[in-house]
Amino acid sequence: MTPSDLPWYRRTLRWGQTNLTEKDPARYDAEWWRSHWRRTRVQGVIVNAGGIVAYYPSEHPLQHRAAFLGDGDLYGDIVRAAREEGLAVLARMDSNRAEEAFYVEHPDWFAIDRDGRPYRAGELFVACVNGPYYREYLPSVLEEIIRRSAPDGLTDNSWSGLDRDHICYCGSCRQGFRADAGLDLPRSPDWDDLAYRRWIEWGYAQRLAVWDLNNEVSMRAGGPDCLWIGMNAGDVSSQSRRFRDHKAICERTPILMLDSQYRHEHAGFQANGDSGKLLHGLLGWDALIPESTAMYDAGTPTFRLGSKPAPEARMWAVEGFAAGIQPWWHHIGSVHEDRRQYATAEPLFGWHEDHQDVLLDRDPLASVGVLWSQRSIDFHGRGQAETRSMQPYRGFTDALVRARIPYLPVHADHVARDAQRFAVLVVPNVGALSDAQCDQLRAYAEGGGGLVVSGESSGYDVWGDRRDDLALADLLGVHATWRHHGDDEAPIASWESYAGHTYLRIDETRDPKELAAGFDETDLLPFGGRLEVVRVDADVNVALTWVPPFPIYPPEKSWMATPRTDLAAVVTRALPGGSRVAYLAADVDRGYARHHHPDHGRLLANLVRWAAHDDVPLAVEGAGVVDCHLYRKDEALVLHLVNLDQGGAWRGRLQELTPSGPFAVRVRVPTDLTPTRASFLVGGSETALSRDDGWVSFGVDRIADHEVVVLD
Ligand SMILES: [Zn+2]
């Protein structure tokens, strides 16, 4: 099959989006944008069609026409131009709110609070996803758009309606929830309330119903490839807040339009690589995941009409490339006085086109899996998902990035499916696990796989109700007491009231020795976090213990009244089948996400290496933070090295790229491959490989933003 025979969602590798404002019908320069499409090598465009604002003359009188549209059809004009350029077209909707005139006509189509007041977003009214607006009116708008312009597919910016902190009490919700759950709507968000729990599940199901309905309508009107594909976020907790079930959505679509536009300070550029890997784990590695990347100055604060510094946009994009994400430029409005943003995409997209074959449809080589579960983020994380779920996950993955250990996210339902590729699975405070999920983990460990488990993992059922003991207690040799020391909230930085002045003591036997690597000259590690108080079985090795808090001020009082306890902080256990399991009672993972203390990162990486029997297919030496992604692509290996050491002393936008290097790289080669050379797709040179006992080695002199090395 040649690329042109493939459906649009398999062959459109670069996208552009000029996100129209109501002013644009009066000023859109069609010729300029056509030449920009060509310059940036895009193969598809996303064009505003309807929803809150229509950019075509709709027959629906209540669909608000853009203020400057007049009798024009800017949407249709852009679609025609795109077709002349041979581009794929997605019609973009933004559907979840409407003008007052619409509300006045159909007040019962809109979301209301418990007192019957409509939910407002500025001057607009928020439509209810369960009412006729979403279930009848919007489908007829989709049909109209498809009839007029035959787009390849349709997207929607905000398709999932109100978030879970806002309960809608409209007639559709009251009746629908009663019919499905047999209950009245919950009175307020309360995770202990049965009605709220059922409402959360019902909310997810209703969004999937919207997804399915829109696809049914689109395919009926536009043919089997006319997909409706919404938009989705990269961060799982943000998907949770909006009732978007990542796994169920990915089971429904061959392509995901990723609306994850920029780096957030707490998560770093590496978060984009994590999103790509996590989503490919659900969609398959042959699927496309285009990602809207802000060319405008998105971030904190955001300037819709400013230009994002090019190094900042580049780093986000190349981290995406490393994880199989495709580029998609995004401007707000069609005319800009800050024209610098127009120059960012061209070199990035040109490089992507030159090397697109190497960047797609690859098989990742990673020996470490990191477990995640949206259900746990919901029902264990509850209102504190960032602290309870996201930080422990990010702490481990940041530590793996820092240690240059490639990893892949693994959904808690996919352990049996995926685990054979991993030497170790990390379970970062995944509190709510079903019995079946725990059985999969148990079978994996009993089959020889390593496990590193932290905090409250497996301590809760699928509703977030606490079990009597950790469900994995038998495997770990550790039992919950449900008491803890310290706090999972960030410590207050006052020396007078500081209760986080705690340490971890390394046992003098230094067993296992891999765990103590790099700590030869210290018996103590700083801690400062939360310790789960656990009982340990007799055959469990207590590698680190907890030292209770003592004053940091005044300095005269800064000595240990209790220099040692028998409270386990990190334990290890060897299973009869050869598997190594470890449990962290101390939330070093959460702490590393917060503070990036080098000792915490080293301890986490040491634990993972130990449990994996040091089975890691890559070694990179040289100073710096480098995110490493290793793949097999047919008969070659492809290694992405993303230089994250960028202006690290400063917060905010990146002003310039800071090159790092040199690096000495070693890669373990699958037994059926015999690569002889390394080609550098960014640096542009080639070098011969030296081979030694199943590994090849080579040097990388300099990495400005990223390097991609093909070994063949
Ligand atoms: Zn409602």
Topology:
Elements: H1 8-11, E1 15-19, H2 30-39, E2 44-51, H3 74-84, E3 88-94, E4 97-98, H4 100-105, E5 120-121, E6 124-126, H5 132-149, E7 153-156, H6 171-181, H7 194-222, E8 227-228, H8 236-241, H9 246-250, H10 270-283, E9 290-294, E10 296-297, E11 303-307, H11 310-322, E12 326-332, H12 345-354, H13 356-359, E13 363-364, E14 368-372, H14 374-379, H15 385-402, E15 407-411, H16 415-418, E16 424-428, H17 435-446, E17 450-454, H18 473-476, E18 478-485, E19 503-506, E20 524-526, E21 531-536, E22 541-547, E23 568-574, E24 580-584, H19 588-595, H20 598-611, E25 618-621, E26 626-633, E27 636-643, E28 663-668, E29 677-680, E30 686-688, E31 690-692, E32 695-700, E33 706-711
Parallel strand pairs: 1-2, 1-12, 2-3, 3-7, 7-8, 9-12, 14-15, 14-16, 16-17, 17-24
Antiparallel strand pairs: 4-6, 5-6, 10-11, 13-26, 18-21, 19-20, 19-22, 22-23, 23-24, 25-28, 26-27, 27-33, 28-32, 29-30, 29-33, 31-32
Helix pairs in contact: 5-7, 10-11, 15-19, 15-20, 19-20
This protein binds zinc ion.
